[in-house]
Specification:
The chain is an alpha+beta fold and 147 residues long. It folds into two domains: 1-34, no CATH class; 35-146, no CATH class. The protein has helices spanning 36-53, 59-75, 85-103, 108-117, 123-146; strands at 3-7, 10-15, 17-20, 23-26, 32-34. A three-stranded antiparallel beta sheet has the order 3-4-5. A two-stranded antiparallel sheet has the order 1-2. Strand 4 and strand 5 (32-34) form a beta hairpin. Helix 1 runs antiparallel to helix 2 (59-75). The longest helix has 24 residues, at 123-146.
């Protein structure tokens, strides 16, 4: 099925999804965002990091780079997109796979312990904080506009 919209009396074909400000909005009964392109970009950037520094850098340096440079690629604008439990698990799995590659293990318990030891947060822990910050900022703007 395809989307059509009319803009200044011109009909445009959109398809099943549309990309707007870096977010892929999927055709659905409810507002829904696709995470496929986001995860693909994240994997591409993390694999580029692995190819550049490989095993030369320590785990702490890699996790710091992952958290400061590459997690924003994965979490861009997700505070405004409604995510269900499966989406959050998918994002967690995306990061967990990178950590499995870093720590050379497939055991999720070891990855969980490493996250605790290095104080590394998974996306399912970061997104609620970002959402609350977004809501607080929105309420502050509403308050300043009404005063």
């Amino acid at each position: 099925m395809c989307w059509y919209f009319e803009w200044w009396r011109y009909t445009h074909y959109v398809g099943d999804s549309i990309r707007y400000l870096g977010i892929v909005i999927v055709r659905s009964c409810k507002f829904k965002c696709s995470l496929d392109n986001t995860k693909r970009s994240f994997f591409r950037s993390v694999n580029a990091l692995f190819s550049k520094i490989g095993r030369l850098a320590s785990e702490e340096v890699f996790l710091h780079l992952l958290n400061s440079k590459y997690m924003p690629v994965l979490l861009y604008s997700l505070e405004v997109c409604p995510l269900n439990k499966a989406d959050k698990r998918s994002l967690d799995f995306t990061v967990t796979r990178c950590l499995m590659k870093l720590f050379r293990t497939c055991n999720t318990d070891i990855i969980g312990d490493c996250c605790i030891y290095f104080k590394f947060k998974l996306p399912s822990e970061i997104i609620p904080c970002k959402f609350q910050k977004f809501v607080n900022k929105l309420e502050l703007q509403r308050c300043t506009l009404s005063c």
